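Lab notebook page, bench 4
Experiment: in silico fold of construct C2
Operator: M.H.
Input chain length: 155 residues
Purpose: comparison with the prior construct
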Amino acid sequence: MRWLRARLGQVEGERGSALVEFVFVALVVFVPLVYVVAGFSAVQRGVFAATAAAREAGRALATAPDLGSGLARAERAAQLAVADQSVDATDVRLAFVPAGGDCGSAGGWTPTLVPGEEFSVCATVTVRIPLLPEWIDANTATGQFVVETDRYVDR
């Protein structure tokens, strides 16, 4: 057996070094790689949640019989869409801008739901990166959906 080890190049003083090297490489390479993948997937999940929330809130609002129930429907639809992406539903904010407006300037404007009205629904979702503290909430994703209410609807 000894001659076989010598022939294969295994020296007695290096026994177990492969295990140490593997653990070192796993800690230095694989752990950060897994963290980066988890971080990117959290951000992507937030982007999907924001776009889905804006779309569903816009659809719910456009088909509502009146503005009061429409806003409640839009809020609930956005919460459900965000929850479908496994994002905390309390981290979603809805805003509305007139047609052609930018979500960055979304303020206190509210649609009137008159037939043929165009407006955008902006849904902002706070993205939580794994292992970062809760108070770091500068990572947000915003989804925008353009809504045109039906021209031939009796409200």
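Observations: The chain is about 45% helix and 15% strand. The radius of gyration is 26 Å.
Next step: discuss at group meeting.
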